[in-house]
Amino acid sequence: MAQTKRYGFVIDVARCIDCRACLVACSVENEVPMDNTRIWVHDLGIKGTFPDLTRSFLPYNCMHCDNPPCTEVCVSGATYKDPDHGLVLVDQDACIGCGFCVDACPYNARYLDNERGVVDKCNACVQRLDVGMSPACVATCVGGSRLFGDLNDPTSEVSIALKNARSVQRFDLEYKEGVFTGPNIYYINGDVLQSGMGPRMPQYTLAEQGWKKALVPLMAAAVGGAFMVQATYFTKQLIEGEKEFDE
Amino acid sequence: MSGYKNIPVEERRRLREKKYKKHNLANILTHWFNVASWLMLLPTGIAIISSPRLGLAPEWWQTLFRSMFGSTANLITFHYTVGLIWIVILGFNILLGFRRYFVPFAAHRMLLDKDDIEWLKIKPLQMLGFFKGKELPPQDAYNAGQKAYMYVVILGTLGIMSSGIVMTFKEIFPPFLKQIAQPIHWVSVFSIVAGLMVHVYMGAVFPEEKEAFFSMFSGKVSAWYARAHHEKWYYQKVLEEMEWEDKVMSETQQASEDKPLSDHPLPSM
Amino acid sequence: MTQPVVSRRDFLKISGAAAGAVAATAGMLRAPVAQAAVSANLLDPDGDGYISTMCEMCVWRCGVRAKVKNGRVVKLEGNPEHSHSQGKLCARGQSGLMTTYDPDRVLHPLVRVGQRGEGKFRQASWEEALDIVASQMLRIKEQFGPEAMVFSSTHNLSQVQFENVLNGFGSPNYGTQRSLCFNAMVTAFLLTYGVEEPARNYDTVKYILYVGRNMAEAISTSETSGMVEALARGAKLVYLDPRFTKTAALASEWIPIRPGTDLAFLLGMIHEIVTYELGDCEFVKKYVVGCEELPAAMAEYTPEWAESKCGVPADTIRRIAREFAAAKTDALAHPGWRTSNFINSFQTERAIATLNAISGNVLVPGGCLIADSPEASGVSLGKPPQPAYPRVSALRLDGVPWKYPLVPLKLGVFQEIREAIITGQPYQARGWFISRQNPVLSIPDRKRTLEAMGKLDFIAVVDVIMNDTAWFADVVLPEASYLERYDPLHVVDGRIFLRQPVIEPQGEARSALWIYKQLGERLGLGDFFQYADEEDYLRQQLAPLGLDLELLKTRGYLDPHIEVEEPTEIRFNTPSGKIEIYSETLGNAGFSPWPTWEEPATPTPDRFYLLTGKVAQHTQMGTQNNQLLHKYSDKPRIWLHPSAAEPRGVLTNDLVRVRSDVGEVVVQALVTEAIRSDCVYMTPGYGHLSKGLRTAYNNGASDSELHVTYTDPVSGGQALTQTFVTVEKA
Fold first, then answer.
1. The domain C110-181+394-488+506-545 is classified under which CATH number: 3.30.70.860, 3.40.50.740, 3.40.190.10, 2.40.260.10?
2. What's residue A232's pLDDT?
3. What backbone torsions phi and psi does residue A186 show, to the nearest 5 degrees?
4. Contact A143 C89 (CB under 8 A)
């Protein structure tokens, strides 16, 4: 069944005033530990020399990608792209907090919650979506910069904002041959691509790479070999018939 | 030097009917408990431990089990619950019988000697078709292949248990340990699985070893089987028997003073 | 992110323990909150649900919907029905529950046992603590007269009962924070429009002029949103500020004006508009006093003259004046917020009032400047009966009105009280009762404030947390946080809003209504507190309107549907009934009746203007201990321009020593292009002395340590930016 909704964010860069209400709201709503954060407002810096100065801010969180590199490395299936609406979520009960996905995310959107021993990140406040509220950051955004909704619905606030935008950008990344992350945060009315806040290629930890490149072929050979041995004997046995008395 | 093929038919018949006890109850129960646990742990484990990038299990298998248990989290909960029970009972068994069973077992039946090394060199080549006529060196209660597999199982089991505990108690252990726990768990499992394929085939399917399979229920093997496949152990058992007979004889001799063996009276009415 | 003092686990443990402790103390004289909320159907039988109340993290007091789960507040949402919030909360509003669950809360009455400032207190019962406070106050009254007792409180919802303590006691010495903040604005607008603070409407605004109003960082939730909306709609924002704030980053045009010379800029604009009759002449003729003489009064203030004072090119001033005037009623010159910058700030405010008036955008239907006070709505709440206040014969220590003839009594000149305590003139104050206020950090020249406190026999403080002033007190009375208490009702845009407890107050904390009543009764002032409890008080407030408290509790607000008659003619609450650009009141008091230029003080070449301001993540000096805000706050540093930093060998994060005429601090530097080279800016509100604030203690430096006390003779407002400092590498 195809994904019916495509939940995503639209950030109107021109409206962000870096008040950080969103950061506090998210921390409270999702009980984020004091030394982690799920969302950011990046300061793109004061540019120019006095008095010709500009400054803008970049609200930022998990991109809920169309093709998330993070879900590809999850060994327990704890993180997944929801088939109905496309949000990339983490099931805390299934996650063991190994952190493969943290390194794999090109946007550094994930963190390890050391108290609970799991990985966490923006979940678009799916617990609020379930009761008809918008994500905490969006609901409280004083400047009206953060928008959220179904990008597949032309009447949603995000679709309308995109339609009326002066400019639209995304931090898209081709991380495999012909495969793009397809982030679902659209930045409008501001240039963010020159900001230096763009994504990096997914990284794979030593353990994950060692597993994939060395151990898998090794065990494939071992198990395959053992299977072949046993299969050979079994076949031989079938062909030659069983000997009740082995002498 | 085995030469068991030269034994005449009548002797073989006698030997076939004579039984020796090879496995005690503790061994048997532990073995089948292990089998039952593995039957629950292996399929669920395979359904869990795979990522799209690693591709370690077919997706339909994962989906099947996830929906069977309702959710990935439930599947994992089942797996580590059974796993913890398995660890506790197995660990308990081994520790309880550590001095009385495990240590002697390890000392007598697990150590590799010269014959075992020789066997390990010849047997694989024989299986590939070389040295067809050559006789294998005599083996003990467990042949070298079985001993080697025992090591795989013990190390593998320790690997599975330790990595399983790290992954289950995720709040306690740091991410790095959890990262290496996953491949360790997987390699341990499949090392055992690789040997398991031979083990199950040999134990349950291969006709020559049929007695071995039933011995995992009765605890007994025939003297013929022992003589043919585990010669050193067979002679040890014969020796034990003879010693036992001597012992009994000397005891009864004590009781009936100087009565020679041949004059041993029949039981009175 | 900085190291947390309290981990998340600890935080949950503490709030859980607090809830448990409360269950044990619940056998006191009030109805358990949760039970009441359940029977009001606000919470379900499990104790989960939303309760409407009001924020108190700043003066904007947004409506809040507090989410309660298992007797704990777990999330705060803006109340969409409250016009100040419109469904949103700023960072401070969102962090409010962290103040309620702050491990450094004062939860029991405390009595000092060590030296003042040692922070050694013993826990006392309410009875004992209140008895001590009352007996000390009565002793002072008997020995030295009631005027020897100073009462100060930053204006808040329970102010009316605080004033009952003050006025019932018979002391004239009322210190509010207003002279530290917006006396200039309030006095100027009272004199010009007859209104303390005109309300602003951004619905149709096309041209906005902010004189230092850093709307993006000194956040008033709905107004900040309104500004962003207006800009998104294409409105133009001209912003005057010596510093490139976040508002400057949003503005269409940022004017890095020399501090103290905004007045010249505005006078230049006014000159241009009135000389060329670009304003709304009809409006001015009808509603403005001094219409004909205005051009002559402004004759000298040409844009060229203005350029010589403020450094902004005359053509720029001219152009902006014309753009402003062209926008007519869709132009808004913001009256200002904190206007305590220079002694000429009063005149600056008068100029802003004038500018709006000549553009005709004041009190015009649908216009941007509504010269009704925000609370004027025709809703008159009831109150408990009380006798007349006793006559007060003593002079006020703050010099109102004998030294400051035009300062309204309700505003006062707070910093003068501090001086009077030190000098003992006109008489020696002996005691100080402080509620919801932090004068140790808010009054300029902190050393002097501490010196003044040393001269007092007795200091009692009502507060939620062990802030700096409480740290130096003799008795600390714990007020319940705003999420745990009732306060008198608040009318906003014609709606009556309620603050009600959403959880059981923790420890022994109580509402101010209760504290003042208890204290009042012990002072023999029971007649001024004729309410049985908080709910009784609220019922008496609602009685004249025939409204039901239970309904109010359920909905969080009530609409009394008062029909306000549209006035047939526009009338201003001034002596003449018109806008008094020419103010006879001012003239009679010996001040210039016209808005007039006053030369501001300037620093010598080796010194800098010490700018202050606001950050969006904190409220003045009250929230620095809130760990959630601390998590997302920038490090407090002093900004200086590279041209100032380089000769001093200062790099970002180097420690620098900052010296003023009254004090010095050591603080980290931030070298940035975003400030004039003759200015420095220190993040305000830091440098706490109280070791009872484990997150805030010793973080950053306090500007109150540096500020020199200057007071404007007209409005009584202080002039913070007239403090000049030297900066060197530490």
1. 3.40.50.740
2. 84
3. -105, 130
4. no
